Every structure is written in structure tokens, then in C-alpha cells.
Amino acid sequence: MAVAWVRRAQATIPPELVESAGGPFFPRWSDGATPGVDLPVPMTNLRVPVGWSCHMLSILLGVSDNLHEPGRGHPDSPERLTRLVGSLSAAGYEISRCSREATRDELITIHEPTYVDRVLGLDGIGGALDQETLLGPSSVKAALNAAGTALEMSDDLLGGNDRQSFALVRPPGHHARPGGGAGYCVFNNVALAAERLRRKGLRVCILDWDVHHGDGTEDAFSANSDVLFVSIHSDGLFPEDTGRAADVGRAAGRGCTVNIPLPAGSTLAAYALATDRVILPAVRRFGPDVVLSSVGFDAHERDPQGNMLLKTGDFAYVGSAIRMAATGSASGRIGMVLEGGYDVEMIGQCAVELLRGLEGKSVESPAQDLTEEERSRIEEVAKIHGLE
Ligand SMILES: [Zn+2]
Fold it and tell me: What CA–CA distance (Å, rounded) separates 87 from 82?
């Protein structure tokens, strides 16, 4: 039997989140044991993939994140997280509740103080950061918890090799720039986690799989040589004017931004070729100490916000690609942060597939589906970055 160290719950999960998920997430934790103490909990359902000597996956749920109510009909609905938690629990994954909130001092490691103060001033009130980034009265609390959960995830990775941690958070973060939120994003959760690790002297790689370009993350690190940012996304979907292959970073960070803009309608074949030709070679050349990933599920063929054609099972490939990227210098240290994914019917199973890929499930990528345009786009990126 594998044994993992599971952090005990330290906070109360919102009742409405529990009810909407069909009951308590962690019934066996309500056994009266001392909260806040690390205890060895036997995990009979922990899968240990071949080749991973000490696989330790923790999944962190921001307990306040579903207090974020951007309004009826908004794509970033609380149901996204509810469905994710329900599917992962049903698949046998343990989920830890995380109540940590990012502090102002932590937020200004990435964001401009004036922006942070503007957001904090909306606590209890709500407001609009732009036309689609809308905050309800409790959204600031949720955003602080989302950022805090990502920071907790980064701390998890410092515990040793072969650590994987997945932060289930909302609002998402990768469109949030240092100076302002956008695209449903308030604080840049993955960037805050990366910066925390960077300040501890680690070289960090961020792989962004969301169908939209991670412009906020790119902006945060574009001049930085300690952080490799790789984004594979739909060309011009959102934002329209960022994420071009020619955008490679600036100053000391030149070459440490890798954009792979794919044409709309791309399938797994394009993602697989991009992984082989660009992503893995770029990561190996950079030599990260840790691999973080912005995980979006909106490249799914059914996603109302996307225009790609990934199938549910294809997310196992994404998981396996993240795993491959962390093999070597990163010693299996992987931190993942939830970004987009707006088809609530599919998002949970996509996450399950992602984790199965992370654990070693292999997926066939049908090369015959590759179009000439997809191939030439990927080869162009490889050429720009000297990955011949
Ligand atoms: Zn997205």
C-alpha cells in the first residue's frame, strides 16, 4: 500500500459548494483527528506509475473560490469547480482544502501595488475590472484564496523530488497582467507561484495549455531569464494581438518566451508535434528546476469559448507531456494551476484524463490528422528558437 502525506483540512468549505457536489468531499476526514497536523494517511487508491519512484500528488481546492460569482450566465461559473471536484473525487482522487489567502506583500511580487489596492478596495462590494472581468461582493476573497492556493502549491513542490500538485482555483489567472486583470482573471495565480519559486533560486518553466494565449504570464516574465514561458494556443483567439511566434521575450529574457500559435481547428496531432519539436526541446535546453503548468481545458472540441478539436481523452496526452517536461532537471516536480475550460459537462473528465496522463497513461497521436499549415507553423517556431 502506498502511503502519502496529506495535509489536513484547516478551514470550513462553503456549505453550498459541498451540497452542490453531492455531499462532503472528504467524509473520512471527519473522524475527529486534530486539524492542522500532517498525518500519514494510507491512500489505497493512489496510483504509482511505472518509473516514478516516489509519486506524491496533492490536489488543492481553494475553499473560498466558489464564492466568486461574476454573474448569471458568465462562462466562469461556480459549477466549473463543482464539476471538477465531483469528477476527481469519483475517480478516487483525494482533494485537500486550502484556505490560504495571498497577502498584499505576496501579490505585489507580480502585480503593481496600485492595481492590488484597487482590487482590495472592491472587497465586499464587487465591480468590473473590464467588460468581462466582473466581481461579486465575495470575489476578492475568492481571488485572494485562488492566489494563496497557487502559492501553497508552489510550497508543496519544495518538499522534495517527484512532487506533483494541482491547484483547483477560480477565478483563473493567466490573462492578469502586472498592472491589471482581464479575461475573467484577477490575480495571476501561476505567475505568483512561479515568482515565489524563482525568488528561492529555482529556474522555473511554465507550460500554458489553455486555448487562449497566457498574455499576463508572458508579460510578467518577458524580461526574465530565470523563467521559461511556453504557450500553445489558438492563434488570435484571445487576446487578438498577443502570442505571436515572433514574440520571444525581451532584454535578458530574450528567447525565454516561446509562443506556439496554432490555427483554429487543430487536433491532438498538432499538439503532439509541437510537444516533440518545440516544447520538450525548449524545456530541456532551459533546464528548469520545476515545471509549472497553466492547465486550461478550453481546447476541448465542445468548449463554448474555444475553437480547437481536442477530445476528452486527449488531455491524457497533455498530462503525459507535462510529465515528460519534468523528467530530467526538474526531477518530477510539477505544479499545475487551473485556468479555463467552460464546458461543465466535460471539464471534470478532462481533468481526470490529465492526471491519468501524468501518471503514465499513453495516448496515440494520429499523425495523419496533421495539416500542412499546422506543420509549417510549428516548424516556424522551432526555427525561430533554433530548435533545428
Ligand atoms: Zn482560456
Answer: 9
Q: How many angstroms does the Cα of residue 12 sit away from the middle of ligand 1?
A: 29
Q: Which residues pair with 232 in a beta bridge?
A: 260
- Cβ contacts of 376-380, under 8 Å, gap ≥ 24: 377/235, 377/245, 377/260, 377/261, 377/262, 377/263, 378/260, 378/262, 378/270, 378/273, 378/274, 378/277, 378/278, 379/277, 380/245
Distance in Å, CA 344 to ligand 1 centroid: 14
For 304, other C-beta atoms within 10 Å of its C-beta total 10
In the structure, what pLDDT confidence band is assigned to residue 23 with cuts at 50, 70 and 90?
very low
Confidence of residue 56 (pLDDT cuts 50, 70, 90): confident
Q: Is 102 exposed, middle or buried (0-12, 13-18, 19+ CB in 10 A)?
A: buried
**Confidence tier at 100 by pLDDT (50, 70, 90):** very high
Ligand 1 centroid – CA 360 distance (Å):
25
DSSP track, 251-293: GGGTTSEEEEEEPTT--HHHHHHHIIIIIHHHHHHH--SEEEE
Identity of the residue numbered 246: A
| pLDDT score recorded for residue 257 | 98
Q: Which of 111, 174, 175, 213 is an active site residue?
A: 175
Per-residue pLDDT band for 9 (boundaries 50, 70, 90) equals: very low
Q: Quick one: residue 62, left, alpha or beta (phi over 0 = left, psi -120 to 50 = alpha)?
A: beta
- What Cα–Cα distance (Å) separates residue 312 from each residue in 194, 273, 299, 346, 356? 28, 19, 10, 7, 12
Q: Which residue matches cell numbers 504570464?
A: 217
DSSP class of 250: -
How many angstroms separate the alpha carbon of residue 217 from the centre of ligand 1? 13
Which domains are delineated in the chain?
3-27+53-384 (3.40.800.20)
Indicate if 175 belongs to the active site: yes
pLDDT score at 388 = 76
State the pTM of this model. Answer: 0.87
Contact in structure between 48 and 356 (CB atoms under 8 Å): no
| Ligand 1 center to 207 CA (angstroms) | 14
Give me ligand 1 centre to Cα 341, in Å: 6
- Kindly list the distances between the CA atom of residue 366 and the CA atoms of 155, 300, 318, 371, 376, in Å, as whole numbers in the listed order: 38, 17, 15, 11, 17
Mean pLDDT score, 366-382: 94
